[in-house]
């Protein structure tokens, strides 16, 4: 994890410190949670893997070892060969 030093206005720093004490977690955890919530609310696209997480494993009828033997299956289907004209 990277370290970042920022200067905050006194009221915001006090608010973070109070929340930290009240919840019994570190100030860093409070700041990370707030930044994560702000990022989600800003409409930024999620991480690529999170964006397709619901699709992983959703295609039926494919071989279980497809990722390990992809070249074998591509050759078997004729993918990449020149077609007769």
Write the layout of secondary structure elements.
Blueprint: H1 10-23, H2 27-41, H3 48-52, H4 70-77
Helix pairs in contact: 1-2
Describe the structure.
With 85 residues, the chain is mainly α. It has a domain at 1-58. 49% of the residues lie in helices and 0% in strands. The chain contains four helices and no strands. The chain has helices at residues 10-23, 27-41, 48-52, 70-77. Helix 1 packs across helix 2. The longest helix has 15 residues, at 27-41. The chain is rod-shaped and about 75 Å long.
Low-confidence spans: none
Shape: rod-shaped
Give helix and strand order, one letter per element, not per position: HHHH
Distance between the termini: 57 Å
Strand elements, count:
0
Strand count, sense and barrel status of the largest sheet are: none
Percent helix: 40-55%
Structural class per helix/strand content? mainly alpha
Radius of gyration: 25 Å
The number of helical elements comes to 4
The overall average pLDDT, rounded, is: 86
Structural key phrases:
single chain, 85 residues, mainly alpha, 4 helices, 0% strand, rod-shaped
Q: What does this entry show, briefly?
A:
With 85 residues, the chain is mainly α. The chain has helices at residues 10-23, 27-41, 48-52, 70-77.
């Amino acid at each position: 994890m990277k370290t970042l030093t920022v200067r905050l206005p006194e009221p915001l720093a006090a608010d973070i410190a109070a929340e930290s004490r009240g919840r019994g977690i570190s100030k860093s955890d409070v700041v990370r949670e707030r930044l994560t919530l702000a990022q989600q609310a800003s409409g930024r696209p999620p991480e690529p893997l999170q964006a397709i997480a619901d699709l992983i494993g959703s295609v039926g009828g494919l071989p279980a070892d497809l990722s390990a033997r992809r070249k074998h299956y591509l050759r078997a289907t004729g993918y990449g060969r020149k077609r007769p004209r």
